[in-house]
Structure formats: structure tokens, C-alpha cells
Write a structure and sequence with these properties.
By secondary structure, the chain is α/β, with parallel strands linked by helices. The chain has a single domain, classed as Alpha-Beta Barrel (TIM Barrel). The chain has twelve helices and nine strands. The chain has an eight-stranded parallel beta barrel with strand order 1-2-4-5-6-7-8-9, surrounded by five helices. The longest helix is centred in the first third of the chain and has 10 residues, at about 35-40. About 45% of the residues are buried. The mean pLDDT is about 95.
Amino acid sequence: MKSMFGEAWERLFAPPIAHRGLWSPGGAPENSLGAFQAACSAGYGIELDVQLTADGEAVVFHDATLTRMTGAQGRVADHTAADLGALRLSGTDETIPTLAEALTVVGHRAMVNIEIKIPYGEVGPLERRVHEVLIDHNGPISVIGFNPYSHAWFADHHPSVLRGLNSYSYHGPDARHLAPELRKQYADLRHVAIAKPHFLALGMDMLPHAKADGFRQRGMPVVAWTARDVDQWDAVKSCCDNVIFEGFAP
């Protein structure tokens, strides 16, 4: 693994990874160029989210809808990149960046973990655009996400891209869109066989996890997400290799 991915593999283990950049209430908003600049200046890695716009661009934004972060109405997928770039994040001067803009700001200063936000089963267009952007980026990166078929797409088309499969316990309202059997399959990590990832990015609510321990012993690292204080990180650090964090300094 190390010889195949080089610096990206080394930076998977350290430093810790700032969730949506190093953002803070009253400071740089999440998934903004300012938050990515702050993470680089503090020496952290970066996790960010990408979605596909109506005109086929990869933009950095977490929610499917615009309201929480911009006050605007509608879905990200229904707007062009130019329209989205004209909006302001959380009342600041920060705008919604494209993935290309974000990677230009980061350069080689930080490992960037790119979470691909697509509905389950729908793959291809966003993955292709992300890879087109990555061709012009020389810094360490990985692609992460919950959709195992997205990972399988990268495994088939661009196997040299480092891949991390996200998972969690699949309890609660945010998992209701999945059938019970599919939730059980994902919580038990049975979808690893579909995704063929190089590492796992597991929610705090499913650590420790016996099956993840087995993968880790066989050389598949585990990154925990999202720790929001020192106690949360201390509780899981013995069963993982790095952490995605926010709201504190690990």
C-alpha cells in the first residue's frame, strides 16, 4: 500500500483531519476556502464534501439543500456552479467553492479526504468529474464516502486513487431511507466486499467493532469520525489509526 500511494498513505495516519476544514462558529464556515486555509496553517489534514451541480461541476458543500448554510432555497443539484458561487456561506464573505478551487488553495500543504456525496446506487458523473479535477492536483488525496458502488467505480476505472469507505451504525432518522436489511449489511461492514476500499472511515457510534478490528489486523487502517471533544477521541483511539475532528484540538 505504502509504495502504491506514497505520501497519501503516510498522511492517512497523521496529522488529524479537520472535519469540513478548520471551521468555527463566528469564524470561517464549514467547507469554505477560509476553513481549508486555517486547517493548512494549523498543520491538519482536511475532510470536505463534494456534490455535482446542474452543469456537471464538482462543488464543495455538505447538505443536499442550500437553506442551512446560505439561506437560499432549493437543492445544490438544481443550480449551476456559477449560481452557487454567487451565494454567501453563513452570512460571511465566503462562497461555495468548486473542488478545483479548494484544491488550488490547499496545494501540497495538506492531505485532502474528498467525500463524494451521491445517492446510493447512482454513480458515474460525479466520480468522473472528481477524477478530472484530481489529474491537475499534485497533493495527497483520498476519496471517501458511504456509497460502496462509488468506491467500486473508482476501483474499476482509477484503482490508483486511495479509497476510504465510510460507515456508521445506521440507527436513527438519517438511515430510514435504507431498507432494514441494507442497514444491517452496512453496519456489519458486509459492503466492504463491494467497495474494495484501502481503509475504513467509521463513525464514533460503531467503535469498537470486532469486524473492523479484523480488517485492521490484516492491514486496512481505520479512521474515526467525527470526534467533537478529547474524551470522545480518547475512547476510541486504541481501535483506530487517525481521527476526523471538529470543535477541539486533538
